[in-house]
Amino acid sequence: MPLNLNDLQIFVHAVDNGGFAAAARRLDMPKSTISKRIAALEADLDTRLLHRTSRSFRLTDPGQDFYEHATAALIEAEAAENVVRRRHAEPSGVVRITASVPSAQFVLADHLPLLAVAYPKLTLQIHATDRFVDLVQEGFDIAVRSHFSPLPDSELVQRQVAVDDVILVAAPAYLEKHGSPTDPQALQHHDGLLVSQTAKTWQLQNAKGLSLAVAPRCRFVADETLVLLRATISGLGVTCLPEAACEAALERGQIVRVLPGWTAGSVTTTILTTHRRGQLPGVRAVVEFLARRLAARHGDTDDPTHREMR
What we know:
This protein has helices spanning 5-16, 20-27, 31-45, 61-85, 101-108, 112-118, 135-138, 172-178, 225-233, 243-251, 281-297; strands at residues 50-52, 57-59, 93-99, 122-128, 142-147, 157-170, 191-194, 202-206, 211-214, 217-221, 238-242, 256-258, 262-263, 266-273, 307-308. The protein is of the alpha/beta class. The radius of gyration is 25 Å and the shape is elongated.
């Protein structure tokens, strides 16, 4: 006898919410119903899926395998329903997005409120972390990644949406006190705000293809973009930051560009989805909205690059 899809949903909610009580609240049904349906599911499968006591709730090894396949089955069922409704239904439901902390702060923060207003039936869940997140294993719909090197080939769908130059900036007060460098070599006489104690050299390029390395005096070290930006605004020295991180401060005059003919490389912003989740209306709506907004910010009137990387 085929398994009941509703029982799969109850089981997945129980696991995702860490217990029967939380799942009952999420599904708005009695806790006893949750317990009975999962017990019936275990009976149908003739195997224990969960170890549960008054103090613990965890999957058995067969339960872990079953959970992964049950989650995939629910995604497929949702996709099957939504593929029919896609042209007519307003995007709704929960869309989970993961991004690095700088990407969340400087790439997404200004756009997500507008996205929420545009699609009031969507619930956005943003997880900002600098650790690597596996979309499939951790259940995220979308990842927004900013990267200096090309992303490795994978089964994920990659959509490149923006490329920002990494530029040199400093506060007007710092430049008034120490003078503005007129060429890259002059930076060795300036205080540098660096991302690492070991990365003391900046590799600069200009539009003519000339490349050279310069080493400022190490004044301050931080591996977090917002900390470097605030230190630069305070007048501690010169630093290199992506334009997306500098845009607002430049517009307010808190910092100015140093050596505008030179850059320290570039950073690319890419949206990633899985093939299955990427077909859901809510996920598609979020990807398209962010792609349009970020491309428009860079003056790109063409469609952003859309690639399926294998």
